[in-house]
Structure formats: structure tokens, C-alpha cells
Amino acid sequence: MSVHSSSSVKRVTTHILQEMKDSGEKISMLTAYDFSMAKIVDSAGIDIVLVGDSASNVMAGHETTLPITLDQMIYHASSVVRAVKRAFIVVDIPFGHYQGNSSEALRSAIRIMKESGAHAVKVEGGSEIKESVSRILSAGVPVMGHLGLTPQSIYKFGTYTVRAKEEAEAKKLLEDAQMLEQCGCFAIVLEKIPAALAQKVAESVKIPVIGIGAGPDVDGQVLVMHDMLGITQEFKPRFLRQYADLQSIMTDAFQNYIKDVKERKFPTKSESY
User: Fold this and answer.
1) Per-residue exposure over 132-158, b if at least 16 CB sit within 10 Å of its own CB, e if not
2) What is the pTM for the complete model shown?
3) Residues paired with residue 50 on neighbouring β-strands, in sequence order
4) Pairwise CA distance, residues 31 & 43, whole Å
5) Residues 40/85, Cβ–Cβ less than 8 Å
6) In terms of Cα–Cα distance, which of 182, 240, 184 is closest to 211?
7) Whole-angstrom distance, CA of residue 232 vs CA of residue 58
8) What single DSSP character describes residue 206?
9) Catalytic residue numbers?
């Protein structure tokens, strides 16, 4: 049982997340984008809720995370904030709102924090966004980094394959992780990199390292809720464990409802006024 269970702590904070790393307690993190789902995942006892720009894929049906706007991210984040009582809430700053312009990065982070009520922001990249990270942190906004496979850069990479398998890229990733820590980031997500490299990163920085397709030897794990619940069936990477098949359960429920309506079995007298 977690020493930071819902009964012993009112709200997860960056301080508590750091304590969890220091004590060896693994950190659990899932995405959420709306009030109803966020309420359920928070009640289950999740440590971090990520309002991910993956909303672009699973909520809006886009092929990549690039099209989602800052206004849309704030809308999703606000919905989640209204539901969550315990978990720490992190929001992705979407593509185009922090790269290359630290003033724009700061404005975006402040809008997210003020208008949604979230607790932190997440950005993708290393040395190339150092100025933006530092600028956001200077305003007192907690920042989570994201290295490895960075979906906002998909057109640069051209593929969703495993990152940092070559020595040069692995060396840069390790250096970028250390740089993000030195800047003041409270945690880092590592996506789709070799497990041995992820372990090396987690051991080389003092801040929590959360993995997705980065092996077991990091400080916590994150998955996209719709993937792990089996709501989306098209996306089945090696790192994904599907904990339910909600697509089948929901389809059966919908079809039973349709059948009952068509056959005049719903509503009955007891379900009428």
C-alpha cells in the first residue's frame, strides 16, 4: 500500500513525488481529458493525471498531436481540474506555443495555470528548448520535461520507432535529462527508449523519471487511458498493457440498448412515470 494513499494525504505535490522517488515508491500516471473520466481515475488513487496533447488523437481524431490548440488544451485541463481532488495535474503545452520563443512559452504556461487551475506544465525536448524551460520556471510554474520519442517532433523523426539506440543520441538524451534537472524541472518523462538507457537516466538524476516504453527501472509509469482501457484498439505498441476491453463492453451495451428500443422492451412501465 502506498504511504501516500488518499487517506493519508489531501493532495499530491511535487514534494510528495520527490519523496516517492527517494523512498523507492513507484509513481503512477495516466492521461485524462474530461470531467467524468478524470473523476474515476482520481478516485482510484492515481498519483499524476496528465492532460496530454494526445487529446488531439483520442478525443479529436487527428493523426498527430500537432493540430490541438492552446485554447483546446485549456478546455480539457479545466474539465479535469474540476474533477480531481487528490492527484497532481500536469498539462502539455501544445506544439508551437513554446519552441523557439521563451516569451511565448511563458505566456502559454501562465494561461494554462491561470485559466485551468492545473499544477504544472509539460514540454518536449532538451537543449533546444532550454531558454523556454528556464523562462517558465522563473515564473514559479513547475515544469515536467519529456525526452526520447517526442510526438510533437514526429515529422522531424518521420517515424514512431524507438529513440536513442545509437550512442550519440543516447549521450545527448542523458545530457538533456541532466540539463532539465539543473534548470529546475521537477520530473522527466522518457518515451520509447531502451530500458538500459532509461535506468541510467533515472539513476543519474535526483528528480523522478516516468517511463512510457522505457522499461521497469524508472521511478514511475504513464499510459494513455484510452489505450490501456481498450477503448482504442488500433494502437497496440509493445509497451502497452491493455487492462480492459472497454470497446467490446461498450459496443455490447449500445447494441443491447438499440435492440431493446427497436423491440419496444425499453422503457418498461417501471421505467416510466
Assistant:
1) bbbbbbeeebbbbbbbbbbbbbbeeee
2) 0.95
3) 31, 90
4) 14
5) no
6) 240
7) 8
8) S
9) 191
